[in-house]
User: Fold this.
Amino acid sequence: MHRFLLIGLLFTFSTANGQIEEVRRITETLCSPEFHGRGYVNKGDSIAAAFLSSEFHKIGVAPYKDSYSQSFELNVNTFPAKMELLQDGVKLIPGIHFVVDPSSGPSPDYHRAKSFEPYLITGTDLLDEEIFVAKMTEMSQIGSTTIIFDLTDVSGDTLRQLSSIPASFAKDIPVMQIVDKKFTWSVGREQLKYPLVYIQDSIVNRSGTFDMHIDAEFIESYKTQNIIAYIPAKKKCSKTVVFTAHYDHLGRMGTNTYFPGANDNASGTAMLLTMANYFKENSAEFNIMFIAFAGEEAGLVGSKYFVEHPPIPLKKIKFLVNLDIMGSGEEGVTVVNATLFEKQFKLLEEINQEKALLAKVKRRGPAANSDHYWFTEKGVPAFFIYTMGPNKHYHDVFDKYSELSFNEYDDITTLLIEFVKRLK
Ligand SMILES: [Zn+2]
Assistant:
């Protein structure tokens, strides 16, 4: 009796640990420098796609068609090489002291050749036309080649009104902007003619001398791919439950800086594989499709392509669950579209209570903030679930593997598995 109990306990521990070890391996691999932040420099996205295909293959989950890949193209701005900004002769750190705008252009030759003193324009200056004109005149008299905007003197609606001005100037001259908030980087799908560089308020010398060397390369029709895998239902069934997670992230910003995208969304990608692993062993009443989307950070491009070229009729999707930011959960999860699908949301709440899983399953209305969006637009019933917790790193260089707690990973997978089992 005792012996069996002990064996039972050992088995429970080893499977739970086995799962989290596997999840850690996958997440750490996706976040490693060899994957280049799963962006477009050095084809980080395609390296990640090949890795995911091999992981699906390894657990015995086949593609839906002949191949796991659903290819599409997008235009994208990239920063493959130099990313240098010196202030008064001191090198600033990319990602920490400064970032380029995702649509920044490369630095012009005259910047690369010698130091420059940017001309300072504040928010207050922009609000007064007379002052602004006087400043512009002075700037051209001095022969200054670069503007440094300081909009930290305005806030709220005023700041919002002025916020597009730096980018509009970067069509004509190099621009810097002082920022007093955390950097939140992204992916650009166009390229400004000149650099647009954001520098932290805490380190900037407003009357300093700068050196800049930034390489930017705009790639037209870059080829990337969604990865699609599929498990047929136990008994033949026309309906499919779909799990999705984007695997792309922001990629590299110069030779030495990349954005690992651990929480966003190596964590959700790992969960996709965890679910595939489970349903491979325990086939469900419905077919199950797994989609690892590309191009999410560039503006939900991969999911848009999918709904426009669906390999299965969208009408046959019983329910779709999009997983993005799955690495924490100490404060529970939020469910986007909860207000649209009350019955299914109640089911989530019910399972959560019954099994005492998460601190909170929070209701949220529709939002265009991840890949579920295009499906919702097409009338496919869908949730987007994300974790909440103390890890606030988002679209910055600190969203690293080492910051993930995986605190509620097992509980979330339990919630999802039960959800599929009880879906009517
Ligand atoms: Zn994301």
